[in-house]
């Protein structure tokens, strides 16, 4: 049975009529037309569907849409409008941390979640912060380096 779910999505109030048990990932992609969060595994193992919910990193494939009621959801589409994103985008580019790009939206959201709580992370902190996100192409060393660069370049932003 469908119900109306209201939440803030990328800084805009939205209200959607949907099954509250439908996955948030599907609502974002099918109902909201946001294709940044991707379905990789559908089991919360790969992080390709990562979004921020009230500032916390979540796998949207594991979150029921009804859980979003009254929450703030930020996807890569909304995040890319921020100064922090610009710093991360440049750092990922400079570090050669992007190849196919499938995992990158989730990886960037994980980096944001990490840096917002720890503006000067160690390599170990970064590896732990991105540990829920899988990458098959680039290799983690370049991604770790990208997050280190972003932390250095974005001093005071996080």
What would your notes on this structure say?
A hairpin with a 2-residue loop joins strand 3 and strand 4. The mean pLDDT is 96. The protein has helices at 24-31, 76-79, 83-94, 104-117, 123-129, 140-153; strands at 3-9, 12-18, 50-53, 56-59, 72-74. It is globular and about 45 Å long. It has a 5-stranded mixed beta sheet, with helices on both faces. It is 37% helix and 16% strand.
Short description:
The chain is 37% helix and 16% strand. With 158 residues, it is an alpha+beta fold. A hairpin with a 2-residue loop joins strand 1 (3-9) and strand 2.
C-alpha geometry = globular
Major sheet size, sense and barrel closure:
5 strands, mixed
For the termini, the CA-CA separation is 41 Å
Question: Structural class of the secondary elements?
Answer: alpha+beta
Strand order of the largest sheet: 2-1-5-3-4
- In what range is the share of β-strand residues? 15-25%
**DSSP helix fraction:** 25-40%
Q: Which runs of at least 5 residues are low in confidence (pLDDT < 50)?
A: none
Tell how many strands the DSSP assignment holds. 5
Oligomer: single chain
Query: What's the helix-strand series?
Result: EEHEEEHHHHH
Structure annotation, total helices: 6
What's the overall average pLDDT, rounded? 96
Cα radius of gyration in angstroms: 15 Å
SSE layout and pairings?
Layout: E1 3-9, E2 12-18, H1 24-31, E3 50-53, E4 56-59, E5 72-74, H2 76-79, H3 83-94, H4 104-117, H5 123-129, H6 140-153
Parallel strand pairs: 1-5
Antiparallel strand pairs: 1-2, 3-4, 3-5
Task: Record keyword descriptors for this entry.
158 residues; alpha+beta; 5-stranded mixed β-sheet; 5 strands
């Amino acid at each position: 049975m469908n119900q109306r779910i209201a939440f803030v999505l990328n800084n805009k109030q939205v209200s959607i009529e949907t099954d509250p048990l439908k996955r948030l990932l599907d609502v974002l992609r099918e109902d909201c037309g946001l294709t940044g969060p991707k379905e990789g595994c559908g089991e919360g193992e790969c992080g390709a569907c990562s979004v921020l919910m009230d500032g916390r990193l979540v796998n949207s494939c594991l979150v029921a849409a009804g859980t979003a009621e009254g929450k703030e959801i930020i996807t890569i589409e909304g995040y890319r409008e921020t100064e922090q994103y610009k710093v991360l985008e440049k750092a990922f580019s400079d570090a050669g941390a992007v190849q196919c790009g499938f995992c990158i939206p989730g990886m960037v959201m994980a980096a944001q979640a990490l840096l917002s709580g720890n503006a000067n992370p160690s390599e170990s902190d970064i590896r732990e912060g991105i540990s829920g996100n899988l990458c098959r192409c680039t290799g983690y060393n370049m991604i770790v380096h990208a997050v280190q660069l972003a932390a250095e370049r974005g001093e005071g932003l996080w």
